[in-house]
C-alpha cells in the first residue's frame, strides 16, 4: 500500500545546522506472518533519532526514522494472535522472543536488539518499505520507522492503549519515557525516603523525576544546563536543581546529601555525565546509565569512585517486561501521578523540520508529530 513518510537523505554537519527532511510517497509491503500494519496517529522525536541525524549512528540512505509511534492496527499477519484490526497501540522496543534473554523474560536485553533496532531491514534481510518509484529505501528502524502515515511493525513491539487515554500522547512511551521511568521503577527501585540525582533534564530525565516522586524519594536532584528544563523539573517534583555540568557538580551534590547520595542516573547522550554521577554517590550507592551514544563514545572513572560498594549498571529501555512496564506508566498517568502532557508539544507532520529544530535546540522537551 502507499503512504507518506519523512525521508532523511544526508548527514547533519553540526548542531547549528539542522537536517531537512522531505515528505514523500512510499510503498509498504503486506505484513509478514508476525507483523502488523499500523496507521500511525502520532510519533515522538527522540534522542536516538538525533544520533542518526547527527551521523553518530550509521544508516543507509535514504531512510525513514521514528521509533515512538502510536496508532491503530489496519492489517495483521497470518500468525498474529494477540492483536486485532482496530486495536489502539503504541509501538515499543523490538525483540526476537527466542534468544536466552527473551526466554528469561528480559526482552530489553535481546541478543538481536542491535540488528532489530539499527539494521534498517528485517532480520531476513528484506525491506518493508520502498520509495513510490521503486527505488530502495531503508526502513525498519526499531522495526517500525514511524515518521510515516503507516508503518509495518512486529507483534512483539506492540502495547495496547486503553480507550480512556489520549493515544497521541502515548507514543513516547515507546522509548524515551519508558527508558527514564523504567530505570527508576525496574532497575534502581529506590526506597521511600532515599535520595537520587538525575543528570539530564530531557524527556528521559524528567520521566525519571516523575518516577522518583511516585517512589517517594525524599531528595530528588536534577542537573541540566537548560534553565527552563530545571524549572519544569521543580514543578514535576524535583527538590533541588543544579545548572552546572562542570566537575564541581559532584562536590555540590555530596555537600547537599552529606556524602549519602543513594542513587544517580545519567540520562545524557554518550554517558558524558557518568563520572560526575559516580563521584556524587555515597557508600553503596548505585548509578544507572541509560543515555545512548555512538560506539566511539567513552568516559573515564577515578578508581576511588568505583570503591566502597558503589555500582554502575547499564540500563536499556528502562528494563522491565513488555507490556507490564508501559501499562504501569499508563495507569499512573490515568491516576494523575504521571503528568506526561507537561513535557510535550504537538506538531503537524508537515512541520517535522520545525519539530526537529526545536528538539535539537532544547526549546521543546518532547516534540510529538501528529500525522492526521
Give the secondary structure arrangement, pairings included.
Blueprint: E1 2-7, E2 22-28, E3 35-44, H1 47-54, E4 69-76, E5 88-91, H2 100-103, H3 113-118, E6 129-131, E7 150-154, E8 158-160, H4 176-188, E9 195-199, H5 203-214, E10 219-223, H6 227-236, E11 240-242, H7 248-257, E12 263-266, H8 274-280, E13 286-289, E14 311-314, H9 324-334, E15 344-348, H10 352-361, E16 366-370
Parallel strand pairs: 9-10, 9-12, 10-11, 12-13, 13-14, 15-16
Antiparallel strand pairs: 1-2, 2-6, 3-4, 3-7, 3-16, 4-5, 5-8
Helix pairs in contact: 4-5, 7-8
Keywords: Metal-binding, Oxidoreductase, Zinc
Cofactor: Zn(2+)
Family: Belongs to the zinc-containing alcohol dehydrogenase family.
H and E order = EEEHEEHHEEEHEHEHEHEHEEHEHE
Write down the Rg: 20 Å
CATH class of the largest domain: Alpha Beta
Strand content: 15-25%
Largest sheet: 7 strands, mixed
Round the mean pLDDT to the nearest integer and report it: 93
Please characterize this protein's 3D structure:
With 372 residues, the protein is of the alpha/beta class. The chain folds into two domains: 2-47 and 63-175 and 320-370, Alpha-Beta Complex (Quinone Oxidoreductase, Chain A, domain 1); 177-314, Rossmann fold. The protein is 24% helix and 22% strand. The chain has ten helices and 16 strands. The protein has helices at residues 47-54, 100-103, 113-118, 176-188, 203-214, 227-236, 248-257, 274-280, 324-334, 352-361, and strands spanning 2-7, 22-28, 35-44, 69-76, 88-91, 129-131, 150-154, 158-160, 195-199, 219-223, 240-242, 263-266, 286-289, 311-314, 344-348, 366-370. Strands 3, 4, 5, 7, 8, 15 and 16 form a seven-stranded mixed sheet that branches. Strands 11-10-9-12-13-14 form a six-stranded parallel sheet, with helices on both faces. The protein has a three-stranded antiparallel sheet with strand order 1-2-6, with no helix packed on it. Helix 6 links the parallel strand 10 and strand 11 (240-242). Helix 4 packs parallel to helix 5 (203-214) and helix 7 (248-257) packs parallel to helix 8. The chain is globular and about 65 Å long.
